[in-house]
Structures are given as C-alpha cells and as structure tokens.
Amino acid sequence: MQPIIPIKMDNPAPTLLQPAPPPTASTKIKYLLTGLAGLGLWFALYRQLHSLAEFLAFSLLGLKPGSHLGEAVLFFFYDTPKVLMLLTLIVFAVGILRSFFTPERTRKILAGKRESVGNVLAALLGIVTPFCSCSAVPLFIGFVTAGVPLGVTFSFLISAPMVNEIALVLLYGLLGWKVAAIYLGTGLLIAIVAGWTIGRLHMENHIEDWVREMHINAADIPDEKLTWADRFNHGKMAVRDIVGRVWIYVVAGIAVGAGIHGFVPEGFMAQIMGKDAWWSVPAAVVIGIPMYSNAAGIVPVVQALLGKGAALGTVLAFMMSVIALSLPEMVILRKVLKPRLIAVFIGVVGTGIMLVGYLFNIII
Amino acid sequence: MDIDIKILGPGCTKCLEAANVVRMVAKEHGLPVQIEKIGNTERIAEFGVLLTPAVVVDGDVKCTGRVPSPAEVLTWLKKAGDRENRPV
Q1: Is the ipTM here above 0.85?
Q2: Is B5 helix (H, G, I), strand (E, B) or coil?
Q3: Which of A135, A205, A281, B47 has the fewest beta carbons closer than 10 A?
Q4: Residues whose CB is less than 8 angstroms from the CB of residue A63 and which lie 6 or more positions away in sequence, other chains included
C-alpha cells in the first residue's frame, strides 16, 4: 500500500482540488436570490395548475365536467404536473440538505451509542442520510464493524428506504399533509421499535462469520469542504437522478389511478380492503413483500383505492410492506445475515406494519 | 508504471459512469491508468467504503457514493502521476 498522504483542504497548496471559487459574500447572495426567484416562479405556476387542467380537459378536449371520462382526464392533467412539480422542489431541497450528511458522519454519530437513544437517532438519520439499497451490504458491514450496535444498524436500514422524501411528497400531494404526517410518524416508530427489538434478541452470532471476523480500517476519506455552489449542484444532480428515474412511475401510477378514479364504482373496494375485513391487513402485508415498487408508483394507486372505500390502515400497511420489505433487498442482505436473522427481520418489521394497519383501521 | 485505479460497485449505472469518467480523463491527458472494477461485496467492504460507487487511486479511497467530476479525477491522476516520478 502506498503511504496515505492526508489532503488538508485548508492549506493553500492544493487549491486545484477546489475548482469552484471560495464562497464570498456576493456568491452567497447570488445563490440566495436565484433560489428565491426560482421559488417564486414555482409557486406562481403551481397555483395555476388547476385552472390549466380544467382548460385542457373541458375547453380544449371538450369533455363534459362530471362525466366519467371528463373526471378521469381532469384528474390526470391536474395531478401529474402537480406531483412532478412537488417532487422536483422537494428532491432539490433534500439534495442540498443531504450534502450536509454522509454515511461516514452518520456512522461516527451512531458508533458506541446506547441502544435506545441509538435507535431513535438511527431512524431519524435514516431520513437524511443518502442511501441506496444497492449499498445496503457495504453499509451494514461498515456500521457493524465500526461498533454500531446491531439493533441500531437495523433501525437505520429500515428507516432509510421506508421513510423517504419521495413517499412523503407523493402522500402529501395526493392525500394531504395528515396522511403524510401519519406515515412519517409510524414509519419512524416501526424503525425504532423493530430495531430495538432485534437488538434485545441478541442475534449478533447470526451475522455471517466472515463479517464478524473482518477487521477493516474505516477508509480515510477527506471530508469534503463544500461550497454553496457545490451544494446547489448536489440538489440539481439529485433532481436529474431521482426525478429522471421516477417520473415514468408517477405518470403510469396516476394514469392507473385516474382510471380507477373515473370508472370503478364508489365503495367497490370496501368489501375487500375495508375496515370490516379483518384479514385484509395481514393479506396486504404478505402481498406487499414480493412486490417491488418505489413510492412513486404505488402512492397514486393507493390514493385511488382509498377513494373507493379501502381503509386507510390497510392501504398504509400495503404501501409500507411494498417499500420496506422487498424480496430483492432480502436476497442482497442474505450475503451478510444468516437465514434466522433475516426471518426475524421480516417477522418483526411485518408485525410492526400490521399493528400500524390495525391501529389506523380502529381509530379512523 | 500505470496508475492503479479501482472502481468499487456492484455494477449499477453509476459505477459504469464513474469508470467512464476516469477512462475519458486519462485518455484525454495521456495518463497511463490500469482500471479494475470490483463488484465483490467482501472486497468492497474491505476498503471501508459505505456507499458505492467509490473510486480508489493507488490504494486511497478518493470518493464514495457519487460519480466524480472530470476535474476532480484529473487532480487525483496528476497527483498520482507526480508521485510515480518523484519518490516520496
């Protein structure tokens, strides 16, 4: 191995490492003004969406207000741009926010924390730490070998995919802030309690042996010193990456939702996904596990189901199961976890989701 | 001697992009590089990397979780090239 030459970002020599000019007051103001102008434009456009959709559906296409087709088309023309605009704004903002958090920093915060406090912190950090399920294994190994307790690591691994900005934006845009808040709250609760439970079960010996025998030195990655220009760039990249990837699911989901909205009779779902069918919650969880979709595709369908009489608890349980418990992720995690720990993971998280489903069916 | 580059990642599109950026920069500036792609989980973990893709130059992890910009890659390669010529 070559000797590691520490890169000190604050000494004057390697200025070529930072192509962007140092943040002076004027560049900061420039970014602030650009941001504000963009936000103003965004709001002006956002408020016109409904009249624009009505114009398209009723004046331009000549559909009759109140007709099946007219309502379905209006729904599509209004909700698609609305959700995409919300998504762009929030993904940009979260992209900037995430430039302040790295998995390395999160690990440093969590290493050696006591369990209960650690579980809460891990679930919260799961929302803001950049994470992609393809990195689940290196992340798991990195956390566990650095002394982050197993249960705390699980709290992070449950919260990171389940409670994310895409799910929250879509729930807010299509179902209102109350449902979004319920999802945020219960999602965090499941991550905290499930992680804590797994920690209590002391299953450290069900991690694959080669992981436990590993001695790795945490990579000495120089902490990047980011300028505001860099952070704006992070936001832009996040929009290009995430919105570019999920817009097609959003459009397809809303199209299916629009179909259900306009054509499926009112109360149709009440029998199979209503409150009175006790078996519908566990069924929703079980059906959700092999299904693999992101929040973007599932929320518009969820909204349409709710409108036709499905119970909120059942639908939330279905959505959480689809997002948080996915077969591909289990296959990836199998590399580092023995089958028993995987079974416990599915069991604990699945039970948590089911309890949330029943709870909301009872209180709402 | 060629500069030793390792791209860590299971083979997602971002990992391919990261490898392409390195290859492009090296070609453009005539720097000799040897690029190795590592997709094996155990080996990725050994580098202490938490997010993929990651770029490793001469054994040092340079960036994780993102595709580096060509400007960044150039500074790493130049630095590594200098080290080759003048022993530290």
Answers
A1: no
A2: strand
A3: A205
A4: A57, A69, A70, A73, A74
Q: Is residue B56 part of a domain?
A: yes
Is residue B85's pLDDT more than 70? no
What is the number of domains present in chain B? 1
Whether A221 sits inside 8 A of B62 (CB atoms) is yes
- Check whether residue A76 and residue A140 sit in a common domain: no
Q: What's the pTM? A: 0.79
What is residue A330's predicted lDDT score, i.e. its pLDDT?
85
Do A282 and A144 lie in one domain? The reply is yes
Interface check B58 vs A, CB under 8 A: yes
Range of the domain at A242: 27-99+230-247
Asked if A296 and A154 sit in the same domain, the reply is yes
How far apart, in whole angstroms, are the C-alpha atoms of residue A128 and residue A116?
A: 20
Tokens of A341: 């720990």
Residues 138-177 of A with CB under 8 A from B: 138-139, 141-143, 145
Does B50 sit within 8 Å of A104, measured CB to CB? yes
CB proximity B84 to A under 8 Å: no
Predicted local distance difference test score (pLDDT) of residue A71:
82
Residue A241 and residue A126 share a domain: no
3-state SS class at A171: helix
Q: How many residues does chain A have?
A: 364
- In which band, very low, low, confident or very high, does the pLDDT at A227 lie, cut at 50, 70 and 90? confident
Closest in A14, A103, A137 to B41, CB measured: A137
Mean pLDDT lowest among A93-102, A145-154, A266-275:
A266-275
Q: Give the domain extent around B36.
A: 3-82
CATH code at B51?
A: 3.40.30.10
Nearest to A57 by CA among A46, A48, A66: A66
